[in-house]
């Protein structure tokens, strides 16, 4: 009899009861709930990449920043830090300046899309925080980036 009651109770559940958990209403596997830092990372994207010795945005970078701006304008309770990075080639001083230009271009782009500048800080790490280490273009291209960190 108890088994029968449990089965009926399970069938009577509303599928929308799972909103915010895994399944219905979720951003997706590992995507986090809407408005979460995890959703920003997985669904929007936290980084843009640059060409060698460049601080100009590519069309792909602009598309990612458009998604970031839309998310940040929707969820205004977050502050962000934009980190500028460079690959390991060049002097420390050159790469700090390049990382600063990269973070600045991202900040200016987000502000131009309506994100309040008071919510944004930026910092250049130059070549000090590589995500990939090797003496090859495959690593260098991953390190030429600006990362938007949701705080």
TrEMBL record:
Entry-linked SUPFAM superfamilies: OmpA-like (SSF103088)
Gene3D superfamilies per record: OmpA-like domain (3.30.1330.60)
Domain OmpA-like: 37-151
Subcellular location: Cell outer membrane
PROSITE patterns the UniProt entry points to: OMPA_2
Pfam family, one: OmpA
Keywords: Cell cycle, Cell division, Cell outer membrane, Lipoprotein, Membrane, Palmitate, Signal
Similarity annotation: Belongs to the Pal lipoprotein family.
Stated role: Part of the Tol-Pal system, which plays a role in outer membrane invagination during cell division and is important for maintaining outer membrane integrity.
NCBIfam families the record matches: Pal_lipo
Subunit structure: The Tol-Pal system is composed of five core proteins: the inner membrane proteins TolA, TolQ and TolR, the periplasmic protein TolB and the outer membrane protein Pal. They form a network linking the inner and outer membranes and the peptidoglycan layer.
Name of the protein described by the UniProt record: Peptidoglycan-associated protein
Native source organism of the sequence: Devosia psychrophila
């Amino acid at each position: 009899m108890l088994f029968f009651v449990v089965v009926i109770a399970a069938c009577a559940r509303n599928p929308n009861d799972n909103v915010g958990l895994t399944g219905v209403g979720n951003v997706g596997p590992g995507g986090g709930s809407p408005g979460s830092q995890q959703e920003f990372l997985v669904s929007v994207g936290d980084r843009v990449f640059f060409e060698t010795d460049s601080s100009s945005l590519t069309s792909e970078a602009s598309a990612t920043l458009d998604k970031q701006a839309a998310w940040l304008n929707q969820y205004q309770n977050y502050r962000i830090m934009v980190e500028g990075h460079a690959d390991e080639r060049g002097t420390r001083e050159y790469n700090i300046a390049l990382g600063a230009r990269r973070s600045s271009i991202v900040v200016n782009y987000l502000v131009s899309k309506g994100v309040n500048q008071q919510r944004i800080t930026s910092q250049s790490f130059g070549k000090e925080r590589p995500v990939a280490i090797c003496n090859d273009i495959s690593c260098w291209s991953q390190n030429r980036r600006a990362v938007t960190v949701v705080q």
